[in-house]
Structure prediction request, 129 residues.
Amino acid sequence: MADEAGALVAMRHANMPVVTVAVDSMTFMEPIRIGMLVMCRGEVTYVGRTSMEVRVEVISEHPFVSQSTVTNTAFWVYVALDDKGNPAPVPQLIYESPEEIARAEAAKERQAFRKQQSAKEAQSREKSS
Ligand SMILES: CC(C)(COP(=O)(O)OP(=O)(O)OC[C@H]1O[C@@H](n2cnc3c(N)ncnc32)[C@H](O)[C@@H]1OP(=O)(O)O)[C@@H](O)C(=O)NCCC(=O)NCCS
Prediction:
């Protein structure tokens, strides 16, 4: 559900199909009990050239008592694809407030870390093959 919600947010931003490339860890801070409604809310937090980071919040809500709880959050990364299936440039985000600028800086660091991890994994796969 969270991946689908994040992908929809990314597709709306890019106006193109997207593919999921990475997700950071997801921890349940609260349980989702049987019978509860589950909703996802996503927002684009960072845009690279072809990639977008989307923060997805999972919210559980009681069906008839107005009470909702955020149970998880995770950052997902999507890449926009052109009609040949190649990564395609996406519209940039405009960061205005100090909060938005700080959030984009934090996202940039996460993205650099993901790419570093993925390069390390590729290296160790090469070594073991
Ligand atoms: C996503 C994919 C098209 C990217 O192809 P690629 O050859 O790595 O292309 P690039 O190197 O140009 O990278 C494209 C973007 O993805 C980002 N990216 C690549 N690997 C990444 C990773 N592990 N984590 C975060 N971002 C990553 C790059 O930083 C780049 O972003 P930018 O343009 O904003 O700088 C390719 O890796 C792919 O098809 N992966 C499989 C995805 C998939 O099948 N998902 C569904 C799973 S069910």
